[in-house]
Design brief:
4-stranded mixed β-sheet; alpha/beta; 128 residues; nucleotide-binding
Length: 128
């Protein structure tokens, strides 16, 4: 099954290549790009434990903001991310956000965070 979704603008987006670009940020441990029915896709991310333990919030915001700019510069207009949302939950097989082969369960992640994704944001990087 292909992981493709359609934005509110009627454009199709393949999230996996965008997620690969976001993994270049040293702080990102897990990422899921969603956007079905949204004007622009959004990246939901989990930070590495080292980052959450030792890196100040302003450095995290700056790094993710730079990553957002870098990633968006490589994407078509309809694929560009509206924002990055950092969630505190780790996605594991035990909490059923990953399959036994360590693939993300996109539908479950999108469902869990749909209210956060739908909320208007005053920043391009949102830390929960």
């Amino acid at each position: 099954m292909k992981d493709i979704f359609k934005t509110a603008k009627g454009k199709y987006v393949a999230p996996v290549p965008i997620e690969s670009l976001l993994f270049e940020d040293q702080h990102v441990e897990q990422v899921c790009v969603v956007g079905s029915g949204l004007p622009q896709p959004v990246a939901i991310t989990v930070l590495s434990q080292e980052t959450t333990d030792a890196v100040p919030e302003h450095e995290i915001r700056q790094s993710l903001s730079q990553s957002l700019d870098r990633v968006n510069a490589q994407l078509g207009r309809h694929e560009q991310l509206g924002r990055i949302i950092v969630v505190p939950d780790e996605w594991t097989v035990e909490n059923e956000f990953l399959t036994p082969t360590m693939k993300i369960k996109r539908e479950l992640i999108e469902e869990k965070y749909e209210t956060v994704v739908a909320m208007p944001a005053d920043s391009e990087v949102v830390l929960l």
